Fold this protein.
Amino acid sequence: MTEQPQTEQTTAPEPLTQLEATEPDAPRVAIIMGSQSDMDTMSGAAKVLDEAGVRHETRVMSAHRDPETVADYCKNARMRGLQVIIAGAGLSAALPGVAAAHTDLPVIGVPLSSRLSAAGGLDALLSVAQMPPGVPVACVGLDNAKNAGHLALRILRA
C-alpha cells in the first residue's frame, strides 16, 4: 500500500482593500482634459460636483503629448480614493479611451468641439463613443460636461 502525499492546506489571503492611507477628504471624482483650452467647458462638471458637495480634482494631461502621465494617473486613481474619472477631449478625443484602458474605474467621456473639429465635433463624439470591447467609456453629449458631472453623481450614489 502506497502512502498518499500529504497536501498542505492554506487559506486564501484576504482580498486587498483600498489603502488605509487614503485621506478621508480625498477627491472622489477626477476631471481630466487634453488641453488647458478645454478648461472653460469642463468646468461645468466641476460646478455640478461642487453644488452636490462632492470633492473633485482637475488636471490637464494629453493622451498624445504625455501618454505616460495619463497612464500613471489612471493606474493610481483608485489607490488615491478616486471613484469616477471624467475625461474631456476634442478632435481625435483619445483621452477618455486611454484613461479607460488604464483603470477599472468608470470613465465618462466628454467629446469637445473646437474650431478645428470636423463636422462640428462629430470626430470627437465618435472617438469617445466607439470604444473597443473591454474598454468601456460612457459618452455624454458634445461639450456637455455638466451631464458628465450629473452622471458621476449617479454612479457615486449607485
Q: What stands out?
A: The two ends are 60 Å apart (CA to CA).
